[in-house]
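Our preliminary data section would be incomplete without showing what the modeling component actually yields. Below, a chain of 334 amino acids is followed by its predicted structure, encoded as tokens that our downstream tools consume directly.
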Amino acid sequence: MLDTPERWARLSIDDIIDFRSSLVRGMHRVKVEDVDNPNKLVVRTRDLALAKNPPDVFAEFHRKPAGRLTVDDDVQPFGPSAPLRRFDVGNYRFDNRLEKAFYDTDLKAREAVAGLYKEGTLVSQIQRAFSVGAFGVGKRRRFVPTRWSITAVDSNLGLHLLETTKTFPAINEYRVYEHVALDNRWAVVMMPTTWKYELIEAWYPNTAWNPHSDRIAIMGSHEFFDGRKTYAEIGGCYYAARLAVNELLQKERRQAGVSILREAHPGYILPVGVWNVRENVRATLRAPPKRFGTLSEALAQVGRIMDIPVSRWIRNSAVLKDALYQRRVDELWK
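Predicted structure:
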């Protein structure tokens, strides 16, 4: 529970901070290419990432663990830390799926990630194993910083799903999905077009990423059918939300234009990690949507959900502007 974000969607920020701050983090410096290092600390760390269930762990530190709770919008909060002196793990069994990918040194990391996801492995489990260099071809394996492993897995899985999402017919209606969690409001607008996608976030004053301004800060990133060539300005949450959207479209065997709108209100006092975006967009899309015949009707519903006026969302949007103002070739022949 303490390290499985897929189970946190209905928890409060206090709950998440509570049990994350109770975890003690052991540190050990290692070169990123030393994934085959026989050092016991390295081996045990990898074993933990591949284990099916959390085993008992004994850790001895060089000094008393200390430090404040560390928070970041990319990774889950974590508590006090200290350099490790000794580290032992009790009885455990490997997850058979992760173990198979680990021992297949001819399997590319991207193929391993896609295969594990298809077999039902949790995204957070894949991200942990990716971080400890468990995937990839032989000597090319590397340790990966946690925030990079999270976004790498979300991004690669999203691209993997998009390969088939883009071949499906478009949905035949306008939809609006809505959800509220951790004082964040979510609205997902789906349009009957070929694939295009954006995530726009609005941070109110006194929230995690807008603590000092007296104005609402809005930013977003987008892509059209041909995708992006650069890293999203909005960060790892862009790829987490894109994965969640593609999961629904894959299930329905459809494609769509998608605009995700997020309002982070003052109750969102601390960032709790990218998982928050992935899991809450998943939760948003599990609820039945409201369906409309026109984009104007769909946007009117957005206006009933969100505090920020629809006109301001449109000003900060690439996908909604395209849908509202860009004329299509088929329209010219009508």
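The radius of gyration is 22 Å. Residues 205 and 213 are 6 Å apart (CA to CA). Preliminary results of this kind motivate Aim 1 of the renewal.
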